[in-house]
Amino acid sequence: MSSKKKAVAVYIRQAIANQSDFSDTLMLNVEALKKVAKIFGNVAGVYIDNRREKEWLSWDNLMKDCRTEKIDMIVMRSLSNLGRNTADMLKKVKELSTLGIQAYFLTEQFYSDSEYFEKIVSFYCSMIEEEYTNKKERLT
């Protein structure tokens, strides 16, 4: 009986200001997350979006690969890689769930298919949104 290893993708959404940011900080993150991904299976790809840009081109490509069953699991540094808007995050999580794709969030140390995940996402987003509002009020 052969057991097929999971195809695990690494997804990073990080602010990339210039080329030196890319080569230093980002590459350290890539290597760390690839090590984690190897625990779960074979690294099937690394997808990187620049947080400074509005487009999520690599996320879109990752989701395309998930829909065509090239990816079984996604490893991310943090839940914040999915965005900061509750509705958007829940939409992404539901699509992953519908596709049967499990995500692991290293910083928070939990999986997207855990029983309380949607509640955790909602709570997390409300904290982020409140923090953003407080910062905005302090600046005005």
Spans of at least 5 consecutive residues with low confidence? none
Judged by helices, strands and strand pairing, the structural class is: alpha/beta
Beta-strand fraction estimate: 15-25%
- The count of helical stretches stands at 4
Global mean pLDDT: 84
**CATH hierarchy, class:** Alpha Beta
Q: In CATH terms, what is the fold-level topology?
A: Rossmann fold
CATH superfamily: Resolvase, N-terminal catalytic domain
Helix and strand sequence: EHEHEHEEH
Describe this structure in words.
It is a single chain. 22% of the residues are buried. By secondary structure, the chain is an alpha/beta fold. 50% of the residues lie in helices and 21% in strands. Helix 3 (86-99) runs antiparallel to helix 4. Strand 4 and strand 5 form a beta hairpin. The chain has one domain (6-139): Resolvase, N-terminal catalytic domain (Rossmann fold).
Helix and strand layout, with pairings?
Blueprint: E1 6-14, H1 19-40, E2 41-50, H2 57-67, E3 73-76, H3 86-99, E4 102-105, E5 110-111, H4 117-139
Parallel strand pairs: 1-2, 1-3, 3-4
Antiparallel strand pairs: 4-5
Helix pairs in contact: 3-4
